[in-house]
Amino acid sequence: MARETITSGIYQFHQLSLPEKIKIIAKFSSLSKEDLKLIKQYQKLPDFIDFENNIGPFKIAANFLVNNKDYFVPMEIEEPSVVAAASRAAKLIKEGGGFLGEYLGNLMTGQLQLLGIKNFQKASQKILKNKKEILEIANKTNKFLFKISGGAKGLEVRKVKNFLVLHLLVDPKDAMGANIINTMLEKISPLVKKISGGQIGVRIISNFAEKRIVFVEGKAPLKKLAFDGFSGIKVAQGILVAQELAESDIYRTVTHNKGVMNGIDAVAVATGNDYRAIESAVHGFASRNKKYKPITKWQLDKNFLKGEIKIPLPIATVGGATGTKKAKLALKILRVKNAQELGIVAAAVGLANNLAALSVLGTEGIQKGHLKLHQEFLRKIKI
Questions:
Q1: Nearest to 181 by CA among 158, 204, 147
Q2: CA pair distance 12, 271, nearest whole angstrom
Q3: Which residues in the chain are classed under CATH 3.30.70.420?
Q4: Which helix (H) or strand (E) holds 41?
Q5: What is the C-alpha to C-alpha distance for residues 247 and 161, in angstroms, rounded to an integer?
Q6: Inter-CA distances, 147 with 141, 185, 378, Å
């Protein structure tokens, strides 16, 4: 069987023995002997528990079909119920054709603060007039990034209170971009200071990544939403009223979005990414119109329940902790080709976790399944 024909939709994957799970993932992702050795090392740690989808370095979510490609998704999180929920919801979305996603941009923003500017219009005009030279200096700091069509792409100038703030717009390609952009800002500072006549203040990347947006959607057949005596329509109605509350009430909105981030953060941590930067970007984006809003939306679409998520997602496949052995293993299991593909998968996991949570909130309640799994986990570790 060719590798590409192997599916992540393994029936009752979580109930398979640990060796069976490892065998499937090894074949799916062409893991090497060194990869399997690393997994074994984590299984020997005193806090490893052979439970549900835990394989050692992280837990594995199954059933993900994203842009017509199958994925087993490594998730690093203490709650096994989050991984089980993601797998369950991913199976529902798979029944509707899987997740579809795209990146709407890959630019990060670096901020350079200028103090003591007397004529803001004149200083702004001078900076923009010298845009080409400023970008050239920035791009000389990372010639490889520029060579692969990344690097500094543009400038913006803003007046914020008594400050003039220059925005350096950078495409970091498969990196998150913090070190790249901070270095660029420091290198362009002398020229910007000379041009503007101001004093240099803050020079740092902004985590408000509004120009690095990922959009993912997916739909589940209404009839497949049915469970434990609740019809598919009843489950969908519960999801829609939960969505309506999240749109209108901050107390619900925060918890709604936290449930989405359960999945996204778990993928970020497993792959060595800065989940704190991702959290900051997402929650800032959710508040961009001066009211904190849910980052997912659910609605009826004929015989389907359709969901979508649109968020900034500054996630990476190179740089920082993505180079650790464990993170490299996670990325190998995922079989992603670049950071944009990883971001789409991570957003799909967030949308799946949201669907799983909402489907039980409006029906049997979240505690029944969560506590059952939690109690089984406690018995397993003999607490």
A1: 204
A2: 25
A3: 108-206
A4: helix 33-43
A5: 32
A6: 12, 19, 53
- Look up 258 and say whether it is catalytic: yes
The active-site residue, picked from 258, 283, 297, 310, is: 258
Q: Roughly what angle, to the nearest 10 degrees, separates helices 250-270 and 232-248?
A: 100
Please indicate whether residue 370 is annotated as part of the active site. Answer: yes
Respond yes or no: is residue 102 known to be catalytic.
no
> β-pairing, 296-301 with 304-312?
antiparallel
pLDDT band with cut points at 50, 70 and 90 for residue 1: very low
Q: What is the CATH number of domain 108-206?
A: 3.30.70.420
| pLDDT tens column, 52-72 | 899 999 999 999 999 999 999
45-51-56 Cα angle (round to 5): 35
Q: Which residue has the tokens 């989050």?
A: 82
Concerning whether 274 is annotated as a catalytic residue, the answer is yes
Predicted pLDDT of residue 372: 56
Residue tagged 């389907």 (tokens): 304
Selecting among 274, 308, 326, 341, the annotated active-site residue is 274
Tokens read off for 144:
């490889």
Among the listed residues 23, 69, 79, 380, the single catalytic one is: 79
CATH topology of domain 3-103+212-380: 3.90.770
Q: pLDDT value at position 373?
A: 47
* CATH 3.90.770.10 location in the chain: 3-103+212-380
